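Predict structure. Input: M20 family peptidase, 382 residues.
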Amino acid sequence: MSEAQITDWLASQRQAMIDLLREVVNIDSGSYDKEGVDAVGARFERHFAEHGIPYRRESHGTFGDAIHAEVAKPGSNEKPVLLMGHRDTVFGKGEAGRRPFTIRDGRAYGPGVADMKSGLVMNVFVATAFHKFGGNPHPIKLLITSDEEIGSPSSRPVIEREGRAARAVFNSEPGRPTGNVVTGRKGGIFMHVAITGKAAHSGANFAAGVSAIGELAHKIVQILALTNLDKGITLNVGLVSGGQSVNTTAPYAEGQIDLRYVDPADRATVMAAIEQIVATSYVPGTSATLTIKGEFVPVVQSAESKALFEGYQAAAREVGLTTLQGEFSGGCADSGFTAAVGTPTICGLGPVGGLAHTPEEYLELDSIVPRAQALALAILRG
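Output follows.
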């Protein structure tokens, strides 16, 4: 097996990659849509079966199953390289029908086209190339997860387990619009605060009421004040609801909080402040509870991860990606879990795209082949 065999074959598979991408983009796979997420998984399993690549499914009762595949030389006991990615999207049922995969002016559009179904397609074809030409000195494992967009509640333990067993992790989230990859990410915590008040007629019996919405308003102001842009700490209350009717003091209110941070040490400090705000009753008679719904940890570049990136960067230069650099992202990803267990990790290796989580999400089709070739060369030389 030569490097040229791998890279030439990947170049010949451009249309096949686009065809598979079209199929999986046109399957709805919102994080809570287990049936749809598993249908996308089944399409990748079909690819593995057609190419003779061993795979298995790790089932989960609530969220989509985890899909595992491996390309290895017989008898190899080397630690594997892990190629990772998620197949769930932020879009609801019916979005693929309303907005199917389309190509315009060299860009592909559709739900999840960049984030991150194209990265999964790339991973699958890179592994297939190695399988076709006899494997790699270090086994290549693929992990296709199901619930990253909601904090990986079912996938986190799987990712951490597979990450600990790996020599290196390449997470194929979309390449940045600049063409760069991601070498650092923020951590994030997604929380729910529920407030109980007391209903009363707001005209005839106002004094007997206790407004949960009033309490939530006080808490929101205090929580948002914890933002510290200089340190990269941001607080956002992105969803609120509550109340019974316009002429009733609100017996219930709730809000959803998004915390992002850079320095792992800041997590405890900010969380303690949020917990104190939630425990404080600004409107006497209210009570509140705080629940963590999902969490990502930061990607902090270690010396080993820096070396992994430099190896990838050198490989990328050889396939024409001469300006590729590492970039920091305020977004969270599963790569934080593997970085946190100590495995060298880089992220954002997928084909280049942008405007994720919006109807304008796009993928640069000409980036598919060189990004696949760069990953393959990095694996070969790792």
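The longest strand covers residues 187-196.
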